[in-house]
Amino acid sequence: MTPPILQTSAHVKYIQTLDTHSDRLDYHLTTHLRLSGVYWGLTALHLLRHPTALPRPATIAFVLSCQHPSGGFGASPAHDPHLLYTLSAIQILATVDALDALDADKTVRYIAARQTPDGCFTGDEWGEKDTRFIYCALNALSLLRRLDAVDVDAAMAYVMRCRNPDGGFGMAPQAESHAGQIFTCLGALRIGGALERLMSQDQINVLGDWLCERQLPSGGLNGRPEKLEDVCYSWWVVSSLAMVGRVGWVDGGRLEAFILGCQDVEGGGFADRAGDVADVFHTVFGVAGLSLLGYEGLEEVDPVYCMPREVTRRVLGK
Ligand code: FPP
Ligand code: ZN
Questions:
Q1: What are the extents of the domains in the chain?
Q2: How far is 10 from 47, CA to CA, in rounded Å?
Q3: Which among 50, 74, 124, 294 has the fewest CB atoms less than 10 Å away?
């Protein structure tokens, strides 16, 4: 069967109307994710070439309303701050070219205070420690051009301690390899400028093998052995391959068909798998995955930042 084509206008409408469902329970059940939800929707809209589909002043005002006196951002106003939402806040402001609206010094102090003596980062003041938070901190600080505020070498060394003999990376030393964590570890190594220095070509090849073994007969990718395929791994796996120059190691045609099959062609949005309910998280990673595969009519995505390449070029000056 021929897969459907990308239903751009349905996806744009789906994202635009996400904020109009405050009469629905699922709207309130996702308050604890809201700021990242805005980043996912906004990024998808930019990649779909509808960058002005959300109102810019209201977007900026919402982001700023989520900043905590400590300098970190919560998912919604008055929520506790966390590195996940602090990164989303900075990514949104960078995307809409409004970083000058941010009290950057205060934000940098919050992020730098999360680094632990071994080089890793905690997500918040309560201390959950994980390679995801190294990535969040380095991504955010690099967009603010303030990587000097933390010990990047110690962070790089910690990431390398999380590398496993199967070639992958886990959330902590000796933790199971997981494609999501591989994305964060490679992203951190790229932002820290250390990937080629710290990983040999042999190590990169073993990692590339592990990543392309994630492709299943359906064409979709899973996040680790024995798991089901899921659209979001089109991002975590293929962006990782892109960061080491090996996108061609997966069968792009079959993956593209799998991703397109996960669209809700009428209501818009992408689900984790065909037939499931669409959500904005799988929507951005479906669209970004198609962009990595070179799908026609999409903006190019930056595999390290999961933002439009045009934006990272402008902000990072490269
Ligand atoms: C899978 O999670 C994904 C990860 C572990 C990576 C998460 C990455 C971040 C939070 C960094 C921010 C990302 C971007 C794009 C800016 P899961 O809990 O769905 O895993 P499961 O499939 O094993 O349940
Ligand atoms: Zn998923």
A1: 8-316
A2: 14
A3: 294
Measured in Å, residue 311 CA sits from the centre of ligand 2 at 25
Q: Which ligand is nearest to the CA of 223?
A: 1
Average pLDDT over residues 120-125: 96
Written as six digits, the tokens of 1 are: 């069967």
Residue-wise pLDDT tens digits, 289-304: 999 999 999 999 999 9
Question: How far is ligand 1, taken at its centre, from the CA of residue 223, in Å?
Answer: 10
Asked whether the beta carbons of 90 and 144 are under 8 A apart, the reply is yes
Q: Does the predicted TM-score (pTM) go above 0.90?
A: yes
For the cut 90, the answer to whether the pLDDT of residue 20 exceeds it is no
- State pLDDT tens for residues 182-196: 999 999 999 999 999
Distance 181 CA to ligand 1 centre (A): 7
Whose CA is closest to atom 10 on ligand 1? 132
Residue 300: CA atoms inside 13 Å, Cβ hemisphere, count? 8
CA-to-CA dists, residue 214 to 45, 217, 219, angstroms? 28, 10, 10
Question: Could you tell me which CATH class the domain 8-316 is placed in?
Answer: mainly alpha
> In this model, does residue 249 exceed pLDDT 90?
yes
139 Cα nearest atom in ligand 1:
16
The pLDDT tens digits of the residues spanning 101-111 come to 999 999 999 99
Give the helix, strand, coil percentages of the chain, each rounded to 5. Answer: 55, 5, 40
Are 173 and 129 in contact by the 8 Å Cβ rule? The answer is no
Distance of CA 236 from the midpoint of ligand 1 (Å): 8
Angle made by CA atoms 147, 91, 291, in degrees to the nearest 5: 110
Q: Using CA atoms, how far apart are residues 247 and 230, in angstroms rounded to an integer?
A: 18
Give residues whose Cβ lies within 5 Å of ion ligand 2. Answer: 230, 232, 272
Token pair 């494609």 is at which residue?
179
| Protein residues whose CB sits closer than 6 Å to any atom of ligand 1 | 84, 132, 135-136, 180-181, 183-184, 223, 236, 306
Helices (H) and strands (E) in the chain, counts: 15, 2
The end-to-end CA distance of the chain, in Å, is 42
